[in-house]
## 1
Amino acid sequence: MMSLFPQDIISTAEAIIRDFTAAGLMVSTAESCTGGLIAGALTEISGSSAVVDRGFVTYTNSAKIEMLGVQAETLLRFGAVSEETARQMVHGALFRSRAEIAVAVTGIAGPGGGSAEKPVGLVHLAAKSRAGTLIHRKMLYGDIGRSEVRLATIRTALEMVRTLYAT
């Protein structure tokens, strides 16, 4: 079957759908720089409706505040691309859904928008379970191209979901 995503991403998404279906678990996503592609990778798999509760595409700061409850103070103090924002995004996605596990990403895919402090290819990811376990990763993919940053982010996000499932 032809897919929009590379085979490694499909294989990881298939494993998540299989494991979560067997366990009766759901997942939600909160995405900025990936624009819904993590949810897209998961829903590429047949049977994903039993697992994917919802995805929040919060590309703007206003959307992060309104849809996920990210604090305006956090965005002003740390910026949209920060650990603090990713943590608040994942918390909002988890508690505004029926999911047991959520994942959130915010970053700078490029080619523009970077700075010395926050370069192109910087992505903050957070995954959280209802049990309270939270994982954060700061990834510096580099200026490898917009599509490659987004694909690398999807890979990392899906692996984080798998890691939380295993704990």
## 2
Amino acid sequence: MSIVSRLTTGEATLRAGPVSLKLDLRATLIFVVLCLIVFAGVVVNVGYGAYPVPPSAVVRTVLGLGDDDGQAFIINTVRLPRALVAVAVGAALAVSGAILQGLTRNGLAAPDIVGVNAGASLAAVSLIVAVPSASAAYLQPAALGGAFIVAALLYVLAWRGDSSPVRLVLVGIGLGATAGAGTTFMITFGEVQQVSLALIWLTGSIYGRGWDELYSFLPWLLLFLSLALFLARHLNALNLGDDVAHVIGVPVRRTRALLLLTSVVLAGTAVATAGTIGFVALMAPHIARQMVGSSHGSLIPVAAATGAAIVVGADLVGRAVLPQVEIPAGIVTAMLGAPFFIYLLYRSRNT
């Protein structure tokens, strides 16, 4: 493998035979720094709690070098999978939002806009309220199924020979409103105990998530995150307009369908795993765009690391502010995201 650097343009090209990979050195450095921040957040998160563990002990225990069995149980069985779920969920939501914003050429777009989160929530709440005897193991498949149903409806209703970004958003808003009304209906007429469980899930929380949730989520994340990175250059072409993308050889319809599928699956599986953690898909791509620009080859990985940092930080803040009453991560991200959304609306008022 050879490395060719061009410091004047801030790029490096890795070559291994006929295969080459171009790297933006600045974006790569920012990504590495963000990964270190996420790592530090995970270590602090795992160490924090009623039984505090110093960061050095956390690292030793995870590496299998600790000699305290009780401490190892708390870290490896209780706290570590929860922190890793926060990382995975944050990355998935951020990449989903970055794809959707690029696909619609709308900086205000997020999976919430096209109804994916609302569809997943409706399916999960319906299972909790209408089938109280159902095992919790069915919650993730139900939520993912709801997201897929909304995606299928979105594909059918927004695809009339072609799919315009404006039509995609408008149809998504309608589907989201319909699914939201269905969720309200289920909550209104459900039993008190089931409604309480549904409301806790709807707030978005990492509480109680373990290795089973992480292992069921990781294949989806790795597969569709890889697909997102592969399609990044096509997404850049679509941002130039369908005509330009078609001229340079991008199969517009198939690429848009794959990008939409990728965004839907990442958001749907994240919601299925941790409930509705709002605004991460909106905030993370904007923050990443300010750091590395709008090229999706750099934006997608940086957005993923940014989203991971946001959810890990939100989970830690929710546990630390009121130790006796844990605040769900979804509430913390909503407190941050709502002012951010208002700011974006204000900034785009004249556009």
